[in-house]
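User: Second chain of the day. Same drill as before.
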Amino acid sequence: MAENGASKSEQVAGSSASPSSPSYGASPSHGANSSHGASSSHGESRVEGEDRSHAAVEAARAGVSRAAHSAADMSREGARYYVQEPAQDLFGLLRDYAREKPDVAAVWCFGLGLIVGWKLKP
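Assistant: Same format as last time:
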């Protein structure tokens, strides 16, 4: 049994040289045919390699697309959290302050308007 298993593994090892790989130990009588067979099978392996590289490129594009969408979603959430909500809070605080002390708020608005108008004059 062990001899039979060893001979099968030797057969598998001997046949592991796929037709896509060039046979370096080809006999001289099959030299022309083996080189022609190796080039056509080399073309097949190139097609298989191109299919694999195309699949790898498509997988990379899909990964980059997922990452870009995730980054866009996170930036929208960040913009809402860090810009929109604080701005609403700030305007809410200013509105409450203006209701509590309208005279001080009016002076501040006048002063800011004067400075901005002064800087914008031609």
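Residues 31-100 form the longest helix (70 residues).

User: Great, on to the next one.
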